[in-house]
């Protein structure tokens, strides 16, 4: 009798412990500077009345057209879905991108700090890869119809010619620039080489 009556308490305690053991939810933003004057802040885009939702809110042709890969020297063009061209994607925690890559073009090394990524090769073939936190490279040549997943936050690239690229746009042409000493050390290059690469990349 005593055991039976204490069971709910055991479950409650377990529940509480499991609850306490949960990690913090992922932050949807990089930082949150307190606005001490506003009494109301909305993170993201507000919702329309659900009664007004239509199929059109969940469909888009934004990715139907190829981007122009000749508009920049890196040879890639990213077309994105947004809440403007696909309102139904708001708060779903995902978005879609079409990446057009010229022959010998690349998507420079970068990381996506708040999302994992799936790449599906629709046409042609492409070398993709990422580096894990122990500096190990995982890469694969994808052919049409093949897919690859990139874990959240790790440095990744998509390339048709990875050996020809010396460094990423971000490292050399950020605004303001990453200090020369940092870039020189990271890439083991001279000041002249930093200047030359910046110039080549238009930075
Ligand atoms: C991507 O392609 C679009 C459409 O052709 C073009 O307007 C845009 O300038 C291109 N963006 C880049 C960064 O090359």
From TrEMBL:
Record family assignment: Belongs to the germin family.
Q: Does the keyword Glycoprotein apply?
A: yes
- Transmembrane segments in this chain: where? none
**Keyword Signal appears in the UniProt entry:** yes
Domain Cupin type-1 spans what residues? Answer: 61-195
Signal peptide (residue range): 1-23
Q: Matching CDD domains, A to Z?
A: cupin_OxOx
Q: Where in the cell is it found?
A: Secreted, Extracellular space, Apoplast
The family database entries (Pfam families) matched by this protein are listed as:
Cupin_1
Q: What's the name of the protein?
A: Germin-like protein
| Assigned keywords, A-Z | Apoplast, Glycoprotein, Manganese, Metal-binding, Secreted, Signal
Q: Which Gene3D superfamilies match?
A: Jelly Rolls (2.60.120.10)
Cite the InterPro entries for this sequence.
Cupin_1 (IPR006045), Germin (IPR001929), RmlC-like_jellyroll (IPR014710), RmlC_Cupin_sf (IPR011051)
């Amino acid at each position: 009798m005593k055991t039976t009556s204490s069971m709910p308490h055991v479950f409650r305690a377990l529940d509480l412990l499991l609850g306490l053991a949960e990690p913090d939810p992922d932050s949807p933003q990089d930082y949150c500077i307190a606005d001490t004057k506003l009494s109301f802040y909305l993170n993201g885009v507000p919702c329309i009345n659900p009664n007004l939702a239509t199929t059109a809110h969940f469909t888009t042709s934004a990715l139907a057209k190829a981007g122009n890969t000749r508009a920049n020297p890196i040879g890639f063009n990213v077309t994105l879905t947004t809440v403007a061209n696909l309102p139904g994607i708001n708060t779903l925690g995902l978005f879609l991108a079409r990446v057009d890559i010229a022959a010998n073009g690349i998507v420079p090394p970068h990381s996506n700090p708040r999302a994992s990524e799936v790449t599906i090769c629709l046409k042609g073939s492409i070398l993709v890869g990422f580096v894990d936190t122990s500096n190990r490279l995982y890469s694969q040549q994808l052919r049409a119809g093949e897919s690859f997943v990139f874990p959240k936050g790790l440095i990744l690239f998509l390339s048709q010619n990875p050996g020809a690229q010396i460094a990423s746009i971000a490292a050399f042409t950020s605004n303001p620039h990453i200090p020369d000493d940092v870039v020189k050390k990271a890439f083991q290059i001279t000041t002249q080489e930093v200047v030359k690469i910046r110039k080549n990349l238009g930075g």
